[in-house]
Amino acid sequence: MPINLLVNATALNSRGGLTVVKQFITEVEDYLRKTDEFALTIMVSVKDFMHHNHRNLNIIYNDSPKKGFVQKYLFEKKEIPKIIKNHNINCYFSLANTFLFKSDLPQYVLIHNPLPFDRLKWSEVDIPSYLKYKVMLNLIYKTRLSKKVNGIIVQTQWMKNAIVSKYDYKGHVQVIRPSVSSNSATERLVPLNLHLNDDDNGYLKFIYPTSVDKYKNTRRLIQAVERYNQVSAQKVILFLTLEGQSTELVKYIGKIPYESMYWVYRQMDALIFPSLTETLGLPLQEALDNDLHVLAADLPYAREVCGLHADYFNPRSVEDIAYGIGKYVRKKNKIKRPSRKYGDMNHSYIDFLDFIKECELGKGEGSPHRRSVASQGTF
Asked: In what order do the strands lie in the sheet with 204-208?
């Protein structure tokens, strides 16, 4: 009997999360046409995914979990049990950090929010996020993670180490970092009417794909760019994927569509990434995939992703960020950075399914601590 897997992707409908869902569905759709080992029911909150339905892949649209805490609670309490029953589900996989409290199904979770694990100061996180992730989610992990979750997928080793050490987690934990490389030379290169090269006067162009979250550290970055430009002849323009009032050298270009992100990267001289915490930092992968030079926060997540293929600065120092910008500008014409293509990593979203299958067969990394569907006699 196949693993009849229910995948909860309802929380992922924007930014990096939406990218994860797009790539996950695209890869598993083709895979499921070739195997009967899995049948997937995927719950999404974006209608565009509905056309992917076929024999072993069922897409269910419901956007109520994104409308608020009460709607999310009712969805998990009332709707998910109905889906589990109606579709004969025997395994559950969440793509968004959390899990089901009341279910006895084997459960797996992709954890990709770093806030419960990183030692950020309270002043570096917005109050709602602090309460939601560093207080509530942290408490849930402490009390329920080991009891309810068979296996965890993370995208970096630092996250794995943090989960095991902070929560004494004894289940399966696997680092899987799927490739971001495009299969097509034209994929994600749809041009935008942004006029990124207009009136730049030969200035260097830096991009920071970011959000309004305080830990993204955008305020310090703007201050550093302004400080650098005040004393330097070679100016830089900072492009931010936020809404705001642009100035001559700080441009707010708003959210970039998924299909155009690589086109934007290829208009830039460098990615600058000062975020105070990330599980991975998807733009770091994407920039390296486009041979774009990277300036990044000197923190474990960036070091793990970029290694020797980036320049680093202290993200809590405006002076050091400005110095890093100047250092890059001075050596720009001398840079001979070897290309690092993430397509060579040989990881894909199919590895998520392989990890679950191995765990259910008792082969996964770590010590099994709950009954799997295999041990329940459903194979």
From this structure: 250-252, 236-240, 204-208, 270-273, 293-297, 311-313
pLDDT in tens, 55-76: 889 999 988 888 788 888 888 8
- What is the tens place of the pLDDT at every residue in 3-30? 999 999 998 877 777 878 888 998 999 8
Q: For residue 54, what are the β-bridge partners?
A: 57
256 and 218 in a common domain:
yes
Q: Are residues 61 and 145 in the same domain?
A: yes
Judgement on whether residues 21 and 135 belong to the same structural domain of the protein? yes
CATH of the domain at 325: 3.40.50.2000
| Strand arrangement, sheet containing 57-61 | 57-61, 38-44, 3-8, 91-94, 107-110, 151-154, 172-175
Average pLDDT over residues 128-141: 94
Decide if 13 is inside a domain. yes
Helix 318-331, helix 218-231: angle, nearest 10? 50
> What distance in Å separates the CA atoms of residue 2 and residue 283, rounded to the nearest whole number?
36
Whether residue 209 is found in the same domain as residue 151: no
Q: Is residue 372 part of a domain?
A: no
Residue 60, domain extent:
3-178+347-360
Contact 107, 23 (CB under 8 A): no
- Does position 337 have pLDDT exceeding 70, yes or no? no
Alpha-carbon dihedral of residues 206, 209, 212, 214, nearest 10 degrees? -70
User: Which tokens belong to 339?
Assistant: 């290309």
Number of domains in the chain: 2
User: Which residues are CB-neighbours of 128 under 8 A, at least 6 positions away?
Assistant: none
Q: What are phi and psi of 307, to 5 degrees?
A: 55, -125
